[in-house]
Amino acid sequence: MKGILYGVGVGPGDPELMTLKACRLIRENEVIAFPGQSPERSAAYRIAAEAVPEIADKTLLALDMPMTMDRKILGASHDKAADRICAFLSRGENVLFLTLGDVSIYSTFGYLQERVERAGFEARLVSGIPSFAAAAARLGTSLVSGRDQLHIYPAGLPEGAPAEGTVVIMKAGSHLGQIRRQLRESGKEAMLVENCGMAGEKIYNSVEEMPDKAGYFSLLIVNDEAEGK
Amino acid sequence: MKGILYGVGVGPGDPELMTLKACRLIRENEVIAFPGQSPERSAAYRIAAEAVPEIADKTLLALDMPMTMDRKILGASHDKAADRICAFLSRGENVLFLTLGDVSIYSTFGYLQERVERAGFEARLVSGIPSFAAAAARLGTSLVSGRDQLHIYPAGLPEGAPAEGTVVIMKAGSHLGQIRRQLRESGKEAMLVENCGMAGEKIYNSVEEMPDKAGYFSLLIVNDEAEGK
User: Less CB within 10 Å around the terminal CB: N or C of chain A?
Assistant: First the structure.
């Protein structure tokens, strides 16, 4: 029998935000993969290890996935990672791939899933808490209620973004200068959480307070409701 | 000392998708509130009870919150629920309010939080898995990757919705006829999950397959990526 690849969201940082299912799957399976050059340098691994310490005794697969926009380098790293995973699947062993936040939202898992399914194996997804949900909880605010719309952007704030509803900008750190200018022009207020639930967590409650540059895990919320409070 | 109100997301239906934190808070606290006329008739309570059976021995507060758009009836029910919660908080007891999915996304918790904070008490939010993340996992598909945008609408598909990215329509059941017409006109494909992770779960993989009406917990995903697969 072939093994199954599980993409498992470990949530945004706080190990207690892991699901019962993620913890059970880690306990029940032997091969644990994650993005990173080593377990210590993988945020997803470190979160899981705090919730399930016995993970350290498993077969650990550190999959080097460089953060680059170069499609060729990216493709090659995904190919190599998928090959390493398939080697276990073909021997009948399940592989868990741990990923930050939720597995369906801006995760590298999709690239691995595509390749592993093409090679004839089954992949399953296990949800995790998305970073924007945790950031809203940390700020003590609802994102949306009633008839509000929720718009989520991966990095900057695009021109012509819908004026209605709540806007979340993930990985806003390197685009903050421009985003702050755009928000000032439209007269909107926003909040920023850097490293939500991780070491070095910082909260900024207004556009004025925010720096023009922040870390990679910076999440910005433009929330009409929060302003009204 | 005053008690604290915790808004706790219990996820979309599968009790294993509850977080470690939600389970711990239920075990550690005595007063558990939830929307519904009785524990048996509350989806949020039933999910929590499957994961933490000892909840049945706690002080249970069934808060009747009618599903209506009448602002006066809604406001009165939120006032009454908040009053019942504040009675415990003022005696120094914490209250957990269980809510389906995530607490910051289309939850009634925000209305209670507002009132409870106005009365001088503290409220905290504890994230849960949002239904759209679980629906994507159930369908085995990513929602967004790379530079995709994610747009979430509470009920129907508004005219002039952004053409780019992935669109999620929550509670699509009663609007399905119109949504199907809109999707056919724009030539887009979509998938529907009814009662994700609950009894009576149904999956529709195309606009053609879908009925014109489905249950309250119906979630539709218009995903350019999924089409390409």
Answer: N
